[in-house]
Amino acid sequence: MDEYFVKSIVSDFVLVLERKNMTIIVGSGCMTIFLFDYFLTLGSEIDLIWSSPWNTVKVLFFLARYTPFIDLFNMAYHHFTYGLSEESCIASYHATGWLFLLGVSVTEAIQTFRTWAVWKDNRQIQTILLITYAGTLISATVLVAKFLGTLQSPLLLSPALEGCTVINGSSILSIIWMLLLGFDSVNLLFMILRGIQSVKSGLNSSLMRTVYQDGISYYIYLVALNLLNIVLVLKLPRDFVVLLATFVTMFFDIKFNLSILTILASNARCIPYLRAEW
Questions:
Q1: For 6, 75, 83, 208, which has the most beta carbons within 10 A of its beta carbon?
Q2: Contact 131, 112 (CB under 8 A)
Q3: Higher pLDDT among residues 255 and 120, named by residue
Q4: DSSP string spanning 10-22?
């Protein structure tokens, strides 16, 4: 066998093994941070969420809060299971992609409902929010499907090695972050405008300050995170694109949960969008 060919095979084997191990390390870190944050905020969730009346927002909160556990089990499956077939590996990573889309769509829906609620007297703003949310979600769904179609599983390293990995993820995922960047920027603008109007009109209670300040800081956080995602997707090797999505989704969930619980802690009974029915 040609010596150059053998060296190429060994080099590719080592590269795939290194990236697989990196994926496991980062994935395990995500699991640990998420679980730590979950148990850290569980007491607040029990006090502020569990006893509140059931409505659409509460259902969405629980979806955003607990669907990541499905992703954790799925992540553990493709990280630590021995002898996975190529089909099982790809299917597991596809599940990760769709769970990512579900998590982002639910958290964005609840945050958009907050902006919707503070603009309850302006149908034009509400219509813009509805159209931009629907357009972003539909576009993101199409792009996620195309992205998942580009994933490939390399030849199984060895039945004796745990887990699997995927390669060749397309940079098309950066377009999804651009869409989210645009959508979150619209929400940020509307929250800032409403906050300025409230201050000018004398609505400056502790609760309202919490709603606006937390809403504005949350969207600034998302805008910065989306910008970072765009840069990293375009600069990192394509094999790390799925890894980045897992890492970012975890931070989305943590920041979202903290945002909702902070507002509830301020004054749950007075927040209109937590009592509203869609």
A1: 75
A2: no
A3: 120
A4: HHHHHHHHHHHHH
Instruction: Determine contact, residues 188/220, Cβ cutoff 8 Å.
Output: yes
CB 137 within 8 A of CB 105: yes
List the structure tokens of 208. Answer: 């309202």
Structure tokens at 204: 């400056």
CB-count burial class (<10 Å; 0-12, 13-18, 19+) for 45: middle
Query: Among residues 32, 12, 41, 68, which one has the least CA distance to residue 245?
Result: 68
104: which residues sit within 8 A by CB, 6+ positions away?
140, 180, 249, 252
Q: What is the pLDDT of residues 33-83, one digit of tens each?
A: 888 888 988 888 888 888 888 887 788 888 888 888 888 888 888 777 877
Round the average pLDDT of the chain to a whole number and report it: 76
Question: Does residue 193 surpass a pLDDT of 60?
Answer: yes
Query: What SS3 class is residue 120?
Result: coil
Full-prediction pTM beyond 0.90?
no
The answer to whether the beta carbons of residues 255 and 68 sit under 8 Å apart is: no
Rg, C-alpha atoms of the chain: 21
The H or E element containing residue 114 is helix 86-118
Buried-state track 3-38, b at ≥16 Cβ within 10 A, e below 16: eeeeeeeeeeeeebeebbeebbebbeebbeebeebb
Q: How far apart are CA 93 and CA 102, in angstroms?
A: 14
